[in-house]
Amino acid sequence: MSRLAELVHAFDPTLPLRYAHTIPANWYHDPLIDAAEREAVFATTWQLVGRRALVQQPGNFLTADVAGEPILVLRDELGILRAFHNVCRHRAAPLLTAPCGKVSKLRCRYHGWTYDLSGQLRGMPEFDGVCDFRLEDNGLTPIAVAEWGHWVWVHLGQPSDSLEAYLSPLPQWAIETDLNQQQFVTTKEYRLKCNWKVFVDNYLDGGYHVNTVHPSLAGVLDYASYRTTLYDWVNVQTSPLKQDTAPDDQGLANRTRTGTEAAYWWIFPNVMVNHYAGVMDLNLVWPIGPEECRVIFEFYFLRVEGNESFIAESMAVAERVQQEDISICEEVQRGLKSRSFSTGRFSVKRENGGYHFHQLLARRLQKWEAEQSV
């Protein structure tokens, strides 16, 4: 048995929650697991890559990196949304380097090869005399792409589910709320010294850390009624908001003032959507290496004009909560390398969402490893 096989099969995803252990500690820092996740997880699932508002008009484009794979998304002349590997077919230079913008064609700045917005190769300077070469065989390599909500998503492999099926029941829930009516305000990015899974674990612990790490948040959530509901590739944590108590943190109370429930949606493997009535945040976490990750926050509000003071206050609250999470996540990463720790156990009452994540992750890794060994 290879070392990778030993690693991925050290976890049993079939156990009932009451008997289950967490994934092994070395999954959070071993380079073999990090490399396997990029192929088995990020390359085989729908990945959110940017806001659809950036690619609304013909010629609009955005670029992104999906766990090491450079991609570009654009709207062609006919209004068709397309995605390609952002790699010229000549010497692998990027075609677009800006995060977003507008173009009429795709021209590689290395040797000047030119492609149209449908990805077809149209011109190669000084390429006369090359044998067995056809323009139509050397267009850009396409990627599956779809739109939902405020965002554009891509799939580097062959998707077995449509995007909406993969996200279910989030799209149906969004119709019943103000999720799709919220307006984008700004983006903030963080770089954490922890494995990306530590950040996801922290998000999915069913509120278990709220009272100890986020005491101000505990003042507005009805923790006793906090619940996690599982679906195929999605789970959602919900909590009623306290309506009859005086919170210690008035800023956080204001952030949640317009609704009766908090909803925290997670989409496997790395997307999180936090919703209160009138307020929404997107969290997107990307691996940088075995022990480092990048977290992107996008902030949305139902009312923007004339709401500047509330937005500033709300974002300040989100920043404080994020700093609390960063601190504990980086501490956990250090602890995961201790010789005293190998695996942990789950709270049956609180941590079914975390186990759901570990099960989905392990099954992907185990399936991919078995396919590689054939």
Looking at this protein, list some descriptive labels.
Naphthalene 1,2-dioxygenase Alpha Subunit, Chain A, domain 1, 2 domains, 7-stranded antiparallel beta sheet, Rieske Iron-sulfur Protein, alpha+beta, 374 residues
Question: What layout of secondary structure does this protein have?
Answer:
Blueprint: H1 3-8, H2 31-42, E1 47-51, E2 60-66, E3 69-75, E4 81-85, E5 100-102, E6 106-107, E7 114-115, E8 121-123, E9 142-148, E10 151-155, H3 163-167, H4 170-175, E11 183-192, H5 196-203, H6 210-213, H7 215-218, E12 227-230, E13 234-240, H8 250-255, E14 261-267, E15 271-276, E16 279-289, E17 292-301, H9 308-335, H10 352-373
Antiparallel strand pairs: 1-10, 2-3, 2-5, 3-4, 4-9, 6-7, 7-8, 9-10, 11-17, 12-13, 13-14, 14-15, 15-16, 16-17
Protein architecture, described:
It contains ten helices and 17 strands. It is an alpha+beta fold and 374 residues long. It folds into two domains: 112 residues, Rieske [2Fe-2S] iron-sulphur domain (Rieske Iron-sulfur Protein, 3-layer Sandwich); 193 residues, Alpha-Beta Complex (Naphthalene 1,2-dioxygenase Alpha Subunit, Chain A, domain 1). The strands form three sheets. A seven-stranded antiparallel sheet has the order 1-10-9-4-3-2-5, with no helix packed on it. The chain has a seven-stranded antiparallel sheet with strand order 11-17-16-15-14-13-12, with helices on one face. It has a three-stranded antiparallel sheet with strand order 6-7-8, with no helix packed on it. A hairpin with a 2-residue loop joins strand 9 and strand 10. Helix 2 packs across helix 10. The longest helix has 28 residues.
